[in-house]
Design brief:
It contains eight helices and eleven strands. It has 230 residues and is an alpha+beta fold. The chain has one domain: 4'-phosphopantetheinyl transferase domain (Ribosomal Protein L22, Chain A), CATH 3.90.470.20. A four-stranded mixed sheet has the order 4-5-1-11. α1 crosses α3 and α2 runs antiparallel to α3. The longest helix is centred in the first third of the chain and has 22 residues.
Length: 230
């Protein structure tokens, strides 16, 4: 399995080269963003996804075709043994690729959360809220985002989208605690494994994939230009 993280910035020529590989629908989505920065982030994130998928599939980036599972999880029409997932937040994007095993990944930029407790009580499991509020106030923001990314990665891995409530399962969130799914039906705990893949300070990121022997090639945060040369 490979995990790549990159900063969502590119020089004008690289940005244009990435836009070229998008299909018409993707370019229309990009152009609907109100702010140029958000448009560029979308173009980079999606264009790099196509370039990386093309590398695995041995085809041109513009020829990558997507299809969607019943609950919206994206797949490649060709090379369906290849599984992938993408997340971006702030100026960072993170990608996961695997063969013959489902995968979900999520990244969140840390930011001020004045209503942190209220949001946690609305979306987190009761045990997670208890764990969160047991921490010193200064430690709660990091724990909040640690918890959030782990839950989002799990939902993305199983492909249930919004049909699985965030408060229906529990993950670890203490800083000295191994990343794990600690409260969910036994069959799911046996099937899935959760791994912290945080790339840099100021962010939290988590990966969930099907259980089994696993070797992860993880690349630290890098630039678009360097990533495409790997």
């Amino acid at each position: 399995m490979r995990v790549w993280c990159l900063r969502l910035c590119a020089d004008p020529s690289t940005l244009e080269n990435l836009r070229v590989v998008l299909n018409d629908e993707e370019r229309e989505r990009a152009d609907r963003f109100r702010f140029p920065l958000h448009r560029d982030h979308f173009v980079i994130a999606r264009g790099v996804l196509r370039r990386l998928l093309a590398r695995f599939l041995g085809i041109a980036a513009g020829d990558v075709e997507f299809q969607y599972a019943p609950k919206g999880k994206p797949e490649c029409k060709s090379g369906r043994a290849l599984r992938f997932n993408l997340s971006h937040s702030g100026d960072m994007a993170i990608y996961a690729f695997a063969h013959n095993r489902e995968v979900g990944i999520d990244i969140e930029q840390h930011r001020e959360m004045k209503d942190l407790e209220a949001i946690a009580k609305r979306f987190f499991a009761a045990g997670e809220v208890e764990d969160l509020m047991s921490l010193a106030p200064a430690d709660r923001p990091d724990a909040f985002f640690r918890c959030w990314t782990r839950k989002e990665a799990f939902i993305k891995a199983i492909g249930d989208g919004l049909s699985l409530p965030l408060d229906s399962f529990r993950v670890s969130l203490f800083p000295d605690q191994t990343a794990s799914i600690v409260d969910t039906p036994a069959e799911q705990r046996k099937k899935w494994q959760l791994i912290d893949v945080t790339p840099c300070t100021g962010y939290s990121a988590a990966l969930v994939t099907e259980a089994g022997p696993l070797t992860i090639s993880q690349f630290a945060a890098t630039t678009v230009e360097k990533l495409l040369l790997l």
